[in-house]
Amino acid sequence: MCKFIAFLNENSGALTAILTLVLATINYFQWRLANNLRKDANRPRVMADIVGINQVVHYKIINYGTTSAVNIKFNIDPKLINRKQVGDSQRTELERWDENTISLLPNGIAYISTKCLWNEIKEETISLTYSYEDIAGQKYSDTYQFRLSNLDLIGDKDHYELEDRQIKKEIVNTLKSIDKTLHKD
Question: Topology of 46-155 in CATH?
Fold first, then answer.
């Protein structure tokens, strides 16, 4: 033990330099990580989903970020556009999305109609590609693929009401059995 202490006393300057270098390296990586987290936390996060409204499939665009998303440009799936006749007002409206842009505030929501009934396209996979910028001009983009056959956008209302009644009965029965168990003692 005495030899170890003597070694430390003789080489204290070198050990201090090495440990300082290790701590400086650790601090640098922590600073870089904190800087990346700060940048990532202060940006728009635009995400897409699909919903059914009045039997029509819509893209639902949401900005989950903390800043505004500007110049959001969409590329609607060409399969959806080609389903409509040339010159049809619905086709023209879908084609316009390739040219126009929108902006979304934080937690902002936009709905884009596909102009297609759920029953017409429920066996297809549709896509949505979009790009957007934050206020500083940083560009982001994303592509989503939606397999509609896996989703039940327009659910059977009677089916869900029956399920709800069954679940409520099970909850009531479970609460009654808990109550009996608690009052037995």
Answer: Immunoglobulin-like (2.60.40)
Tell me the sheet residues that pair with 110. Answer: 61
Whether the CB-CB separation of 52 and 153 falls below 8 Å is answered with: yes
Q: Residue 157: what pLDDT? A: 47
- CA angle 43–47–53, rounded 5-degree value: 140
CB atoms within 10 A of CB 65: 23
CB atoms within 10 A of CB 181: 9
Q: Rounded CA gap, 131 and 41, in Å?
A: 19
Q: Where are the beta strands (DSSP E) in the chain?
A: 46-53, 56-63, 69-76, 101-104, 109-117, 125-133, 139-147
pLDDT: is 24 or 162 the higher one? 24
Q: What is the pLDDT of residues 45-96, one digit of tens each?
A: 999 888 877 778 888 999 998 899 999 998 888 888 887 877 788 888 888 8
Is the pTM above the cut of 0.85?
Answer: no
Cα distance between residue 46 and residue 175, in whole Å: 42
Q: How far apart are CA 21 and CA 175, in angstroms?
A: 62
- Which residue, 3, 125, 10, 109, is CA-closest to 60? 109
